[in-house]
Structure formats: C-alpha cells, structure tokens
Amino acid sequence: MLTQLLRSSISSTLPIVVAALGASFTQRVGKLNIAIEGTMLVSCFVSVYVAAGSNSWLLGVTAAMTSSCLLSLFVWLIHRYLGANIFVTGLGVNLVASGLVVFLSSTLLGSKGTIFFEEMPSIPVLRLEVLEHSEPLRTLLFDYNVLELIAMLVVFVSWLITKTPLGLRMKAIGKNETVARQLGLNVDWTRIWSFIFCGLFCGLAGSMLSLPLGLFVAGMTNNRGWLALVAAVLGGDNPLGVLGVSMVLGFSVALSNRLQLFTTLPAEIVLSIPLILTLGVVLIYSILKTGERGRSP
After folding, report:
1. How far apart are CA 135 and CA 24, in angstroms?
2. What CATH number corresponds to the domain at position 201?
3. Which residues lie across from 126 on neighbouring strands?
4. Is position 252 within any domain?
5. Which are the contacts of 11, defined by CB distance < 8 A and separation ≥ 6?
6. Are 130 and 66 in contact (CB under 8 A)?
7. Contacts for 168-173: CB closer than 8 Å, 24+ residues apart
8. Residue 171 lies in a domain
C-alpha cells in the first residue's frame, strides 16, 4: 500500500509541478499569471477532444499546449494594452474557462457530465524489464507513460532556462523593471516569452490529467491549478523550491484519493485534505517569513 501511495504521489505531483513552473516564469518577470486553473481546465478538454478526433495523443497534447498559450497570452495582452489589473484578468479567465468547457462539452459532445472517449489513442508507457523480482520497486521507479517522462524532463529544462540569458533577463526585469529598461532590455518581449512558457507548461499539465484516462468532466482539474499557483508563489525563483512544495501538495492529493477507498470519513472532509494542507503550508511560510523580517537589522 505504501508503494502505491508513493507512486500515486509522483503521478499527482507531476501536473502540479509542471503548471507551477509555468506560473513561476511569469512571477519571475513581476507579472504573476493566476489563470492557471482555467488554462489547465481548457487544455484538459482540448487534449482529449483533439486526440480522440485525430487518433493521435501527440496532436492532442500539441492542441492543448497551443490553446493554453493563447489563453496565457490573452491575459498578458489584456493587462498590457488595455490596462486591466492582471490578477482580475486572470481570475476572469478562470471563471470563464469553467463555463466555457461546459458549453463546449454540451455543444460538441452533447453532454455536460462525464464523457468517455472510447477510441482514445493509448499513450506509450516505458516498461523496462528490470527488478522483475521486485514488483513494488519496478512500479515505483519505472512504468511511467510518455507524458510523465516529459514532465520529469520539463522540471530539468525549466531549471536550465533560469540559467540562460533569457532566464537572467526575466529575473532582472522582475527585480527592477526601470533599471532593466535603462540597460536596454526588451521588457515586453521578455514578459511575452514568460507567458508563452506558462501556457506551454499548463497545456502539458492539463493533458496529463485527461489523456491517460480518456475522459473529460467539468472540474477535472479539481483545484490543481490553484495548488500549482501556491507552489509557484512559495517556491519563488528556485525551481527546486517549486518542486519541493509541489511534492508536498501532490502527496496530499494522493493521500486524499487513497483515503476515499479506505476510510469512513465523509467525502467532503477527505476531499478537502489538499486544501487544508495548502492552508497550513501557507501559514507556516508566512510565519517563517515574518520571523526573518523580525531578525533582519
């Protein structure tokens, strides 16, 4: 049971950390995109719809990442050129997305409930014939589908990006936009790139939730976008910090899912475990930050 919980924790962590790393790019340039939940939800729908229609999971992922990029850029463009508050814009996208997927589901598929795609293409799974005498270890260390492997690679790639000239420009702009402009940095284009990365990452994260299951239901993200946002804020500029917070939150999601099978507690309490833990993590973070400011001269 412990092995299954750990394996489930990894699977639950990956979409959260990928979306969180996407959000952290926008945070790094001083314009945090909070439309993570809505962007992931739209990509959940787009990925399964396109994959089922084209019989290609790769096209499904590509379409999801494209739609997420457009949504992410929409947030930036509305903020930059129409002067809208970026947080209000992001919140608006989240609210519109929740209704949009229900409308699309009803219009295109004729149902507002859970939709199963019977002819969904299967996602390749890396199966290595190792540790054949230890099923728990093989389950824990191997047997990941391609999307999960890509997500693991994305964590490393996001760290590499922070070390590139583009990543350093993002950090400089986030620290002091005025100085960055005086140094000749193209602030607008750098921020556009950060929102593009955010969209790409959220598209992949949303695809990971729906494609392996071959189904879609409104609310499929189940607040994972908000959990990713918390991980991005608490992790800050450090991808490893984002990963660490995401692992804690991913474990809480996996624990909540497992407890539904083995406990008599009301479902409402079990399902609220990730949110309760998130609140606790934020509280501890706030206390530690307050203590640091109190000790500083």
Report:
1. 37
2. 1.10.3470
3. 144
4. yes
5. 148, 254
6. no
7. 170/25, 170/28, 170/29, 170/194, 171/28, 171/237, 173/29, 173/30
8. yes
Report in angstroms the alpha-carbon separations of 205 from 38, 88, 114, 256. Answer: 12, 23, 20, 20
Taking the C-alpha atoms of residue 119 and residue 86, their distance in angstroms, rounded to an integer, is 40
Nearest to 66 by CA among 210, 203, 212: 203
At residue 5, does pLDDT exceed 60?
yes
DSSP 131-176: STT-HHHHHHHS-EEHHHHHHHHHHHHHHHHHHSHHHHHHHHHHH-
Closest CA to 170 of 145, 197, 143: 197
CA of residue 190 relative to chain centroid, distance: 21
> How far is 4 from 259, CA to CA, in rounded Å?
12
Tally of domains in the chain: 1
121 token code pair: 């293409």
Q: How far is it, in rounded angstroms, from Cα 249 to Cα 225? A: 11
What confidence tens digit (pLDDT) does each residue in 279-290 have?
Answer: 888 888 788 777
Which residue's structure tokens are 């939150």? 249
What are the angstrom distances between the C-alpha of 147 and each of 88, 125, 219, 225? 32, 9, 21, 18
Print the domain residue range for 265.
2-122+136-295
In a domain, 181, yes or no: yes
> Does residue 131 lie within any of the structural domains?
no
CB neighbour class for 140 (10 Å; exposed up to 12, middle 13-18, buried from 19): middle
Q: According to the model, what pLDDT value does residue 134 have?
A: 63
292 pLDDT exceeds 70?
Answer: no
Whether the predicted model's global pTM rises above the 0.70 cut: yes
The answer to whether 278 and 284 have CB atoms below 8 angstroms apart is no
The torsion angles phi and psi of 118, rounded to 5 degrees, stand at -70, -30
Read off the tokens for 165: 């000239």
d(CA 277, CA 281) in angstroms, rounded, equals: 6
